[in-house]
């Protein structure tokens, strides 16, 4: 090993089996909270599969014995999906672009987070990767010249420092890093081959055991690409793009819509009312990420705050609420893993990343499994199964960080659930009825009835008020009636007083 790389480092000890040679941070982007990837060449596909601990820990592999998402279509409204990635082969069945800068198929649109949509899609419905393709990156490293290898390795170490800071050496293992440099062999492969045989992947075809496998590996995807930058250099605003995307998803057969994007604002434009109400009326379940604290979003933002939307918070591998990857608020419905995650990158690679952007498609994938297993259920009933079977977490009741608890996919698919009561779940239709009804056109007015006796004044002036004699309401009558009764009482009292006075005088005259 060269002098630039002293021995004495621990190799990504927080990650499983040395599988991740790629680390992730977070950045702030307009409208969306997305991961910034510090990427080295992708490791062998088996490594990425072994890092997906949630497939076993959340009961996904158990649920696959009942359903794998077949027959369910999920729309991914994001930066576009690379449908040619080996892990997504056959997953994307349709798409569109609403940004003005993408392709008609919904492929990745160039922007700050171009890879975001592909990462999201792979966690939701990744197909895995044929094992014969898994050694490509390893072979590439072996074919490098000494000079090329040293240059690549220097870049790799620089990535580690960029991610972990000046103390990054405390985060890697000395022996593994040394072994990696000397052999150009990704650490832990022998152990991985023993611990993760191909037949250990229930629910996935034997010829696709590796790579990133989604929660619903047989669900179909629709890719709707947009630009999450303001202003959009291609034209339509984010507000208009999202409204159009939701409507297109419903019109093109989506059963579920995944939105791993968030504005950081609790309210939303009225133009979204119609689009999200359209989804609700057509029995389409919308799943949205709560947002990331590291991006400055401490409270849940729209579209996750829209009534009826299934809002997802993020937890770490120990199921503790993520310190940086999960906003909080009363809109939180359920929590799922948001760190550490893996996912597919455009161009065929893989990466590690964090954020509720990844937790949302895990829940959307679980919803697809439930829909596939119970096609008779409405979108609200699917949501009910997910929330009522969640593992308890946080405070009693609905916790502002965990919602109803942590996702339990096996129970959601096959477990017993309490009876569904629609009144327990808020709808956008009811919210609009209550909160939008007072917002009327200030130019509108009712015509004056012809028989009212009221003559309209000149334009711009108030009408003549009706005369007192014309009043007919109960309130109009209340004043005169009260005054009349009071006057009558005064007259009666005066009459009694006069009679009493006269009687006293008559009595006095008799005594004289």
TrEMBL record:
Q: Does the keyword Protein transport apply?
A: no
Keyword Glycoprotein applies: no
Q: Where is the Peptidase S8/S53 domain?
A: 69-131, 210-405
Q: Where is this region: Disordered?
A: 441-471
A Pfam family matched in the record? Peptidase_S8
What's the name of the protein?
Answer: Peptidase S8/S53 domain-containing protein
Spell out the Basic and acidic residues composition-biased ranges: 460-470
Q: Where is the signal peptide?
A: none
Q: Which family does it belong to?
A: Belongs to the peptidase S8 family.
Catalytic residues at 78 (charge relay system), 116 (charge relay system), 357 (charge relay system)
Q: So where does this one cross the membrane?
A: 477-502
Q: Keywords assigned by UniProt?
A: Hydrolase, Membrane, Protease, Serine protease, Transmembrane, Transmembrane helix
């Amino acid at each position: 090993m060269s002098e630039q790389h002293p021995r004495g480092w621990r190799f990504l000890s927080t990650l499983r089996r040395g599988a991740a040679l790629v680390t992730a941070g977070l950045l702030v982007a307009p409208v969306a909270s997305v991961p910034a990837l510090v990427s080295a060449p992708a490791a062998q596909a088996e490594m990425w599969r072994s890092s997906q601990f949630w497939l076993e820990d959340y009961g996904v592999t158990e649920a696959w014995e009942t359903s794998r998402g077949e027959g369910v279509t999920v729309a991914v409204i994001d930066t576009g999906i690379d449908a040619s990635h080996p892990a997504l082969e056959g997953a994307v069945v349709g798409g569109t672009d609403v940004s003005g800068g993408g392709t008609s198929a919904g492929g990745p649109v160039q922007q700050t987070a171009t890879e975001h949509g592909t990462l999201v899609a792979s966690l939701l419905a990744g197909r895995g990767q044929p094992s014969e393709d898994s050694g490509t990156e390893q072979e590439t490293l072996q074919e490098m010249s000494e000079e090329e290898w040293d240059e690549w390795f220097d870049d790799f170490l620089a990535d580690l420092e960029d991610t972990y800071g000046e103390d990054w050496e405390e985060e890697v293992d000395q022996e593994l890093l040394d072994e990696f440099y000397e052999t150009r062999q990704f650490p832990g492969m022998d152990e991985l081959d023993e611990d993760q045989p191909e037949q250990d992947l229930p629910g996935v075809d034997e010829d696709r055991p590796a790579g990133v496998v989604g929660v619903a590996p047989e669900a179909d995807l629709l890719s709707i690409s947009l630009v999450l930058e303001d202003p959009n250099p291609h034209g339509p605003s984010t507000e208009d793009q999202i409204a159009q995307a939701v409507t297109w998803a419903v019109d093109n057969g989506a059963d579920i819509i995944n939105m791993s994007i968030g504005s950081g604002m609790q309210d939303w434009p009225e133009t979204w009312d119609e689009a999200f109400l359209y989804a609700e009326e057509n029995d389409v379940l919308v799943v949205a990420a709560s947002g990331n604290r590291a991006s400055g979003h401490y409270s849940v933002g729209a579209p996750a705050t829209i009534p009826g939307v299934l809002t997802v918070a993020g937890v770490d591998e120990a199921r503790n609420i993520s310190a940086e990857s999960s906003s909080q608020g009363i809109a939180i419905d359920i929590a799922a893993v948001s760190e550490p995650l893996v996912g597919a990158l455009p161009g065929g690679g893989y990466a590690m990343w964090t954020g509720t952007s990844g937790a949302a498609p895990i829940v959307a994938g679980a919803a697809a499994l439930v829909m596939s297993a119970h096609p008779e259920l409405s979108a609200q009933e699917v949501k009910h199964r997910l929330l009522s079977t969640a593992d308890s977490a946080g405070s009693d009741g609905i916790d502002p960080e965990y919602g109803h608890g942590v996702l339990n996919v096996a129970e959601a698919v096959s477990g017993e659930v309490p009876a569904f009561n629609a009144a327990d779940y808020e709808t956008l239709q009811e919210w609009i009825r209550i909160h939008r009804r007072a917002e009327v056109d200030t130019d509108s007015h009712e015509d004056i009835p012809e028989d009212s006796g009221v003559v309209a004044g000149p334009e711009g002036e108030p009408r003549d008020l009706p005369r007192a004699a014309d009043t007919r309401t109960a309130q109009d009558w209340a004043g005169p009636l009260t005054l009349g009764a009071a006057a009558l009482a005064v007259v009666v009292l005066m009459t009694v007083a006069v009679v009493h006075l006269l009687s006293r005088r008559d009595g006095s005259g008799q005594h004289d």
